[in-house]
């Protein structure tokens, strides 16, 4: 009799646990956050749009770049292209070179990322006349 | 308790419970009348404690003096070379403090674009270069591009990441500390330590070991197990 009581009570406890407000689909019974996860493409598009603003001002460029460098990633070439064009609109060559230095540093030990970025950005660099730090001899001490 | 005991009985009740010299019941020998009232939990070391503390403080003053001299050199170098404050291009600051209400310059790897450019006050050549910057950048020479960069920024990324020689100061300071400590310890061993207890002497130690062997201390795995009783030598 006691065993029956125990069985009933444990099953009752379990069903109580199940009726906690999880609002999950019937298949999954985990409580993950329901915030939408931004895809990589959405992230890139958002940042390209940010830097593509025609009347972007110097503060917005600084803020955007500092925030972007704060992320745990190396920005895609298209984002950097947009940022370099923003520098051009602001007549700021020094910041453009600084951005290239910053993404090289962001690559960390992965030495193949920066050459890839320069390769992808080469058309923009030649079009706008931005020299890389290596061209200017500023990559050495 | 009152029965006569043989030497080799294994019980140690005939030994004195405390070593000789402890005045268990009489209380500590305090150095001065005034200190008695300060702290009831005073150390019971007697006159030696006063000597030790003054010795320690003098030694501390000496060592801190030397360390302070060493560290002040490093501090002076660090302070005079701080790029954030010493832009030297138009900031007329009387004191060394930074005006935090103004936009600041910084060289940081994780924040590439600071709030203000490095060189704020531009002379006429700089201004004309800045004018040229508004045109196509393909028209700028390499030197002009470098000059524009140096107007806006102090250090390049490789310059920010340059290694410093600080580790030599640290290791050197460590060794100096070790050396001073070694001298202190040596001096203390010579001048401060009281004479060794008589139980440390060669003869006493030999008798002690013999006694332990006679008692068969740890005969299975430990002390007496290492002694070869037949041949009267260590195994």
Automatic annotation (TrEMBL), chain A:
The keyword Ion transport does not apply. Its main location: mitochondrion. The keyword Signal does not apply. Pathway: Energy metabolism; oxidative phosphorylation. It comes from Coregonus suidteri. Component of the cytochrome c oxidase, the last enzyme in the mitochondrial electron transport chain which drives oxidative phosphorylation. The respiratory chain contains 3 multisubunit complexes succinate dehydrogenase (complex II, CII), ubiquinol-cytochrome c oxidoreductase (cytochrome b-c1 complex, complex III, CIII) and cytochrome c oxidase (complex IV, CIV), that cooperate to transfer electrons derived from NADH and succinate to molecular oxygen, creating an electrochemical gradient over the inner membrane that drives transmembrane transport and the ATP synthase. One of its GO terms (cellular component) is respiratory chain complex IV. It is found in: Mitochondrion inner membrane. CDD domains: Cyt_c_Oxidase_Va. It comes from the Eukaryota. InterPro entries: Cyt_c_oxidase_su5A/6, Cyt_c_oxidase_su5A/6_sf. GO terms for molecular function: metal ion binding. Keywords: Acetylation, Heme, Iron, Membrane, Metal-binding, Mitochondrion, Mitochondrion inner membrane, Phosphoprotein, Transit peptide, Ubl conjugation. One of its GO terms (biological process) is mitochondrial electron transport, cytochrome c to oxygen. This is Cytochrome c oxidase subunit 5A, mitochondrial. It is a peripheral membrane protein. Component of the cytochrome c oxidase (complex IV, CIV), a multisubunit enzyme composed of a catalytic core of 3 subunits and several supernumerary subunits. The complex exists as a monomer or a dimer and forms supercomplexes (SCs) in the inner mitochondrial membrane with ubiquinol-cytochrome c oxidoreductase (cytochrome b-c1 complex, complex III, CIII).
From TrEMBL, chain B:
CDD domains: Cyt_c_Oxidase_IV. It is found in: Mitochondrion inner membrane. The keyword Transmembrane applies. Coiled coil: none annotated. The keyword Membrane applies. Residues 1-49 are annotated as: Disordered. GO terms for biological process: mitochondrial electron transport, cytochrome c to oxygen. It is a single-pass membrane protein. The chain crosses the membrane at residues 170-189. Pfam families: COX4. Keywords: Membrane, Mitochondrion, Mitochondrion inner membrane, Transmembrane, Transmembrane helix. Its main location: mitochondrion. Pathway: Energy metabolism; oxidative phosphorylation. InterPro entries: Cyt_c_oxidase_su4, Cyt_c_oxidase_su4_fam, Cyt_c_oxidase_su4_sf. It comes from the Eukaryota. GO terms for cellular component: mitochondrial inner membrane; respiratory chain complex IV. Belongs to the cytochrome c oxidase IV family. Component of the cytochrome c oxidase (complex IV, CIV), a multisubunit enzyme composed of 14 subunits. The complex is composed of a catalytic core of 3 subunits MT-CO1, MT-CO2 and MT-CO3, encoded in the mitochondrial DNA, and 11 supernumerary subunits COX4I, COX5A, COX5B, COX6A, COX6B, COX6C, COX7A, COX7B, COX7C, COX8 and NDUFA4, which are encoded in the nuclear genome. Component of the cytochrome c oxidase, the last enzyme in the mitochondrial electron transport chain which drives oxidative phosphorylation. PANTHER family: CYTOCHROME C OXIDASE SUBUNIT 4, CYTOCHROME C OXIDASE SUBUNIT IV. This is Cytochrome c oxidase subunit 4. It comes from Coregonus suidteri.
